[in-house]
Amino acid sequence: MDISSSDNAAVIAQLNAVQDDPVRLLRKAHELLGNKLAVMSSFGAESALLLAFVAEADPNMKVLFLNTGKHFPQTLAYRRELADVLGLTNVEDIGPSHERVSDRDPTGELWAFDPDACCKLRKVEPLNLASLPYEVLVTGRKRGQAVTRASMTIVEERADGQLRINPLAFWQAQDIQAEMQRRHLPPHPLVAEGYLSIGCAPCTRPVDGQEDARSGRWSGLNKTECGIHIAG
Ligand code: SF4
């Protein structure tokens, strides 16, 4: 089913009606949108819960994993483990082409002197390309993660007309952890080492008990987002 901007209101109304139940929301979205829907997952510290909801709604739902080439090896192992444990059958790795990386980041150190350009090369451009067939993306973002996400809704219409569904928008970190434990979901192996928000290895550090989880991302820089969630 193709949705045009004029159809957005009808789709949003149907999704909003079930927004309090993440599994019903995902099922309804898949029913309405079919293969025009994809889930984005970083397979990070809290990703297992959204992916468990996806598996319960439909394990064949498309899941996109953005492999930047800069992930911790533990994240790559966790991506395989979670897909197996949850029975996800349609996880696709996307990422920058070798040509673009060797052209614009030949030493692999672009992150150190121009992280915005690095995120553009390794995240924004590959996701824009890979998400072309999809009219609606599901994300695991939460309101509490950053001020840029504080007013995010569960069903979100961006400036470019694309819809984003954020089933966990109102979930708190402690509720996510409790639900992950209740469901016996395996934790990301780096959580035990103090990594509470996990992105690329060069741009992620562990946090102590006083810091918020995302303070370990691009630490020391005036940067809180990689750009893939900025409205078009
Ligand atoms: S998070 Fe860091 S390494 Fe990853 S794409 Fe952005 S700047 Fe590059």
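Residues 5-216 form a domain with the Rossmann fold fold (CATH 3.40.50.620).
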